[in-house]
Amino acid sequence: MKRLIVALLLAGAPLAARAENFTFVNTNSGGDQVVLPASAPDGRPIGASLNAVTTVATFADGHKAETKARCSSWILPPGSDFGTNGVCEYKDANGPLYQSRFTCSAPVKGGNGVDCWGSLIGTGGVWKGRTGAFSLHNSQSAVRGEGHWNE
User: What does the DSSP assignment read for 98-110?
Assistant: First the structure.
């Protein structure tokens, strides 16, 4: 589940309120989880995790930015079409920056990771009042994705 725990993305201070596209790489660390085994042979485990995330975003104009977050994700119940939901809160020394809320596909046995997607909500700094969206792929080797901040 540690690799399934995704966090989310992005950083970099926009210079003005304009739409901005970016790609990103997340690094998860300091994870703590509680996961109980599935009650049926083909069932899903039950559990949740907390972890720290560092996101390095590269914007379309070439500038890079790094932000840090605390994230929580939980496995959805058996019968759900999706695998996990989660939230992240990005902050810096001055306070809140933005939040992410995401959903991930259910893992497929023998697959090469899961895909996730979600929203961005600006809560402080240059992002306050802005929204955005992102998608990512979480594999054993990396968490990579792309997204945008709306105008």
Answer: EEEEEEEEPP-TT
